[in-house]
Design a protein that fits this description.
The complex is a heterodimer. By secondary structure, chain A is of the alpha+beta class. Chain A is built from 25 helices and 28 strands. In chain A, strand 2 and strand 3 (about 55-60) form a beta hairpin. The longest helix of chain A has about 40 residues, at about 85-125. By secondary structure, chain B is an alpha/beta fold. In chain B, about 15% of the residues lie in helices and about 40% in strands. Chain B contains one helix and ten strands. Classes of the chains: A alpha+beta, B alpha/beta.
Chain lengths: ~775, ~120
Amino acid sequence: MTVSNANWVGENLNSSEIELLIDGASCGSCVKKIESALTRVNGVSRAEMNFAQRTVTIAGTAKQLDLIKAVEQAGYHAKVSTAATEDEALSEKEAADFVYYKRLIRDMSLALALGIPLMAYGLIVGEMTVSTTKEQLAWLVVGLLTLGVMVFSGKHFYIGAWQSFKNHSANMDTLIALGTGTAWLYSMVVVFAPEAVPEMARHVYFEATAMIIGLINLGLALELKARGRTSEAIKRLIGLQPKTARVIRNGIEVDIAIDQVLLNDVVRVRPGEKISVDGNVIEGHSAIDESMLTGEPMPVEKTVGAEVVAGTINKTGSILFKATRVGKDTALAQIINMVKRAQNSKPPIGRLADVISGYFVPVIMIIAVASALIWLNFGPDPVIAYAIISATTVLIIACPCALGLATPMSVMVGVGKAAEAGVLIRNGEALQTASKISAMILDKTGTITQGAPKVTDVILAAEFDEATVLRLAAVLESGSEHPLAMAIVESAQERGLLLVQEPGREYAQGSEQGIGKVSNFKAIAGYGVQAEVDGKNLLFGNEKLMQEQGIELGDFVGKAQGLAAEAKTPMYFAIDNQLAAIIAVADPIKEDSIAAIKRLQNNGIRVVMLTGDNRDTAKAVAKKVGITEFFAEVLPEQKSEKVQELQMQGEIVGMTGDGINDAPALAIANVGFAIGTGTDVAIESADITLMRGSLHGLADAIAVSKATLRNIKQNLFGAFIYNMAGVPFAAGILYPFFGLLLSPVIAGAAMAFSSLTVVTNANRLRLFKAEEH
Amino acid sequence: MIIINLVGLLLIGLIVWWFWLYKPEETEVGEKGVVITVENGTYSPSRITIPSGSPVAIQFLRKDPSPCSESLLIPDLQISDSLPQNTLKTIYLPAMKPGNYEFHCQMQMYRGQITVQ
């Protein structure tokens, strides 16, 4: 949202707003015209145009199409501000970066064109000293040329330094400006008034000034290039968004720009094309490749009613779908937004570096002054020359940038890398904590298993028949969204025991005869359900429920245990307080769960399974997937207690669930992982969202965060060591022992390349590959 | 020599005073809102005051081409965003309790403060 001249204090920011980009507005007077055209549209409470940006923000309840029409009628063009402009924003950013890059290279070339010959002269011909008038004149010319370089190639350092000085703050510009400025000023004093300094100290340092400006510009240019690579992942995501869509308007198929697609538009996608916006299939069926978003390599079969998401590829059939989310609301746009935010956020590990960089520059200035004083008091002759060199070198070598860049650069690459694998990391903190996870709790249903159980066995008690039992059970469970209930309803449907299907409601066959009316429905969390159907009192649930209601189970307990040992969930079904049947439901284990759990365990992570199922089922599933520790018969509200239980044992706990009734547990865990269903990213309670169902995502997420944290530590260590060793070295700490004093030119090169090293090291993370599954 | 040393120490004292002890003036965000310009290594104005208890929108205009200035972080509010060059960017602040909230770029070289009264 972009609004100018607006006062938002106290205004309700949640009111519905639409932002349009206006084309064709060339003068200030257009603003009034457009604004008043829009205000006349029904439902518009306010329209404000930002002329500088050619955007207009409209508050109210009006429809997008009406607003666009109003602008068109006023003689201008309008489009919805969307992810397509994300693409434009990216190319604008790249263009701006390129201009900046060219400027840096130009500045660098000019400075080095003066600096390199001067330095060569100093090295080959000899001392750059001032003793005769002729030399004075010659060096005056060089000094003025250097001033030219400072003004032309280094003015951004001096302006930046002055601006921040006025603001009572100091940054890298301050250090560069002070360092090069000191060297130049001293040299000019030597040129104009050689007699003011001792004969031994009549040395000029113009080459240092020119070289430092050149090298730092070079460093900045290379850093800019390297930085471009850190955002490759986000570029790839933005690139997934197609630029046009084929919609049906007034019965005709037309290709329109993606930002013109409106809600409820009917969109046609042919084989091989990308899905343009999110929607629901209304005609046709096809296999859709969602790998670019979820990392899931197998195409997903979609038919009428299925959800399709922008950025995925339609492989086989031609489909029509109705747009349900467009522009900034599509899953892809939200993923881009989330990744961007996460890339900009910082993990706690960077905090110390933050505190240090807050004090860094003034401290370096103090060290420079102190160093000069020490040389002046205790140094060898010419003290003034040594004092100036050491102060200049200290100012130049110190690099707050390396310290400041260490964390964000790695986070940028790491979060992007994770997104490529279908792992969305909410922020830097989640990234850091994920690297330290010592125990992982996996919810069984929907996480380890497919979460779509099927009826496997119906064991009848004497006088009941299967059709009646299944039908009654299905009627009883028809209103429930519990996966076990849905399995029973589905099973009854498959056998033709349920007839009419309406959204959200199932009716039993022969409902006219009074069969199928559910009354006094009661769900008992963790136990089962109870209701009356056609005057029959039905009970459906686990052993505890039956015991509580005093129902005789006899040898069925043993049968149930037998089923449970096969990882099936047996449920007792009682009609009028008499046991009618055991209905067993099993939820197939996801293909790669076993391998993924093994990966976690190989990384030394304690894997614990959590389920509401009974002990026997839990034990059987756990055994199948190679888990030794599990919590069974856990009521939904107890899940978070189990997380806390492990935390009390000193574990850093990751909790993985499908987010349906796991929200409190996900929130309380050190890191909550939500297994996304396809591309649903609206899982708010999770720190990390796995966009595909596979548990390999967990191992990938942990591996990426470990690699990122390792990278951050290398960067921070490098930056700390560089500054901690470089600054005393520059101040001349080695001089008393070895007679070594660093040249300011070397310091400039070291400083320029220290931050480049950090960015390059962060870029190494791009090569990271989670171990193959 | 004594004079030189005294000048040096005075210089150190001035650095401490100018960069740490001195508090620059604050700009009040009133009816007209505020546009914070990001240019030449600084936020201008860098210290703003806003009333407590109501959401506020502030705007940033980044003119600085340096990539460092692109990120904007307000850690206490868990806000992290990027500022496109030469484009006004609105940052929505939730209703806040009185106190000081720092905002800065990724590397903390650009720094500012929001005072909620």
